[in-house]
Amino acid sequence: MPLRLHDTRRRDKVAFTTMQPGKVSMYVCGVTVYDRCHLGHARCYLAFDLIHRWLEFSGFDVHYVQNFTDIDDKIINRANEIGGDWRALVEENIAAYYEDMDALNILRADDYPRCTEYVDDMIRITQDLIDKGNAYQADDGVYFHIESAPEKYGALTGQNIEAVRSGAGGRVEGTGSSKRDHKDFALWKAAKPGEPTWDSPWGPGRPGWHIECTAMSMDYFGAQFDIHGGGHDLRFPHHEAEIFQGECHTGCSPVVHHWLHNGFVNIDGEKMSKSLGNFWTISEILKSVDAMVLRFALINAHYRSPIDMNEALLKDAERNYNRVLECYISSLKSMTSKSPVSLPTPDITSSQPLTKSLAMLEKMGEGFAKAMDDDFNSREAVAKVLGAVREIFKTLSSGLDERDKDAFAHYSVEWLEETAGLVLGILPSREFALLEPEEDPRKEQIASQVEGLLIERTQARDSKDWAKADQIRDQLTKMGVVVVDSADGPTWDLV
User: What CATH class does 309-433 carry?
Assistant: First the structure.
């Protein structure tokens, strides 16, 4: 099945095509580095990490560019709030960005341009737009004039320019801006006291937000490229502004062949917001949630769908992720040779468990690929992995002879490493997976006491003194000890 994706501009699922056969040019709007990344950033860059991974797994040579907005009102305001240098703030938050993304196993982009490196390009593009009649100089900067290309309005959002005209159109009055129309947006902002500035034909100042992505994407990819991505909230005004200025500057339309946008993250049914007290940075949530569990929770949904993050979702993700990890470790430990015997030809109709199981895994692998080819449907892809995990566990415990079990384990490891590993990015390396977990130092401190209590409990149970046995169990529970009874006797661990 050929890859299909939902193009925001065309408002439909379309066949994926590239400008150059086998090559993908992909630009994703990066973070404004005034603060630590939050859960919404995790959702966005995980979504495009999956897209990046699947395209490369499918054989495409992907050139992935993701920018840093390193000058902006938010950066200036935050630096003023803390009384620090804006450049130091930028460097601190870029370092924190890499730390957060690495923790979530997000593959690095090929390039991370910064907008301050492209001011000259932004000035050149802005001057060209002025020369072509698409932009004008005002007292407080340079603005793009929307009415110079009204046919492009609402390209991504479907907004009707006539409705906007009748609702609030005309010259802006009393807003502190000298722009001609409320719809116009800034390409260049005139200098303000205490702000960093650059020289330009219109006096000292700094670039507007929208022009930066046009300058950077065009530097890497030229007038047109394959994929432009970002969060749902960037469709308007940011991405529509890019369409205006990019297409008017180059004369090429469309400047982007496929627009992709990921959905929002809500917290317990409400939009994430600092004012509501439900705003989570990535570093904060990773203090209590394993990074791979968070990754699992966020990819176990279609990238365009909103996610309602809550305790139940995280618990479900933890359970399913641990199941996948346990299956991977069990398969690794069942590999007893470097040269396994040949496996039988898969046959879904076979009465032989091994033959049928191989066919089931083959079918689930096909389903996984079909899901990812259908607009990167990671939720369905995760479901196929979980189904495969159940099948692998069942077959490994079905009483296969040693050689068949070894061969099946090799097959299972490769299946999981391709799907859950390379594509979904939730598996550790083989070496890390097989590491024995570090012993909790608290266990050593209470081990002799716990073992003594377990002996007493066993004796009480043998003499049918259930009250005493229950009393000892309660005592162990208060110590944070969980006891598991088995035919070989009780075992214990810390909660």
Answer: mainly alpha
